[in-house]
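Working notes for the structural subgroup meeting. M.R. asked for a predicted model of this chain before we commit to crystallization trials. I am recording the input and output together here so anyone reviewing the notebook later can reproduce the run.

Input as submitted:
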Amino acid sequence: MQDALGHTLVNDHTVYACVMGSRAFGLATDDSDTDRRGVFVAPTPLFWRLDKPPTHVTGPMDEQFSWELERFCGLALRANPNLLECLHSPLVEYADATGRELVELRGAFLSRRVEGSFRGYATQQLNRLEAGIRSRGEPRWKHAMHLLRLLISCRDLLRTGRLTIDVGDQRDRLLAVRRGEHSWSEVRGWIRTLDAELDAAAARTPLPAEPDRPSVEDFLVRVRRAGAQAPA
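Returned structure, recorded in token form:
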């Protein structure tokens, strides 16, 4: 029942949809999946019931995942890399007026919190890679590539105050890592270099200490008020 409701909400109430993953990062190969991400707005009357609408939905298409707007905003304010990147995807498939306003608000989510959040994700991935080396003898090179991409993205975000998704001139070097053309010691050295560059960038970043929560909350309240008039 909840899956059916979730799929209906995605199909009928999506305000923003984009392609993420390797295709958005400029790292797609012939066998890359098409990862779709989106944001939907549940009609406000659904929140008046004992059973609340879902905070996120998988599907209905393959490789599709969507967040309800409030959940999306809460995670993005905490500098979740996946959600911040979603708002900066160069491959937007759909955006209505609410979705466009959300995209215009994306700078409000950026703050110095990104250092801890992005680095936390990178540390988790590094631990998994090293566990894989201990059990299988080598890392999962695709995961190593995305770890490096995440660190590069965070470094540049801290340097410039802008989040850039496409890897640009780093594409060939990163794809070489994916193909296993660099040793793990070389990759580990690149990670250490990026860590040092992150330290330097964090020390002089133009990003504010905290995200602009009041602007995000004002947006959410206006959307909820409008949704109170929508059919449940």
